[in-house]
Design brief:
Number of helices: 4
GO cellular component, one term: cytoplasm
Shape: globular
Structural class: alpha+beta
Radius of gyration: 17 Å
Organism: Tricholaema leucomelas
Strand content: 15-25%
InterPro entries: N-end_Aminoacyl_Trfase, N-end_Aminoacyl_Trfase_C
Helix content: 25-40%
Keywords: Transferase
Oligomer: single chain
Number of domains: 2
Protein name: ATE1 transferase
Strand order of the largest sheet: 1-2-3-4
Length: 160
């Protein structure tokens, strides 16, 4: 097994030379693991949502995320329902000391705290809580639907 780090932005010559082959591996993965049809668009399957009650995507997915968090905590960590309610979810994974910031030379999404939502068939099946900072991305927490544990979403999220 040989692993290469290939710069994707700006695209290096290696990235350009291997793009089609990489895309075909990605497409096959989506079809086999996620049962996507060959022509299914996948642009919205992973969404990076700023942790902000001002953000419409965050607000509209909050209840689904909080419910998934409770399901995960009770199944994986054996928490009681009172230990993983909406208030606990908000305190643990939504209240962040980081302030959102957009820098001209920074990423398009800006800096701050985000929920990286993994969607399948119209529902969230995993959420990676991450902080995007000027010199690193910090993985704060990941929770997933235990019904999809066979997908190894923690490993997938770390590699992604």
């Amino acid at each position: 097994l040989k692993v290469r780090v290939v710069r994707s932005s700006p695209p290096s010559s290696q990235f350009k030379a291997t793009f089609q082959e990489s895309y075909q591996v990605y497409k096959r993965y989506q079809m086999v693991v996620h049962k996507d049809p060959p022509d299914k668009p996948t642009i919205n399957q992973v969404r990076l949502v700023p942790v902000s009650f001002e953000d419409p995507q965050f607000k509209s997915s909050f209840n689904q995320s909080a419910t998934l968090f409770a399901k995960y905590q009770m199944a994986v960590h054996k928490d009681t329902p009172s230990e993983c309610g909406e208030n606990e979810f908000t305190r643990f994974l939504c209240d962040s000391p980081l302030e959102a910031e957009t820098a001209p030379d920074g990423p398009d999404c800006g800096y701050g705290s985000f929920h990286q939502q993994y969607w399948l068939d119209g529902k969230i099946i995993a959420v990676g809580v991450i902080d995007i900072l000027p010199y690193c991305v910090s993985s704060v927490y990941l929770y997933y639907d235990p019904d999809y544990s066979f997908l190894s979403l923690g490993v997938y999220s770390a590699l992604r």
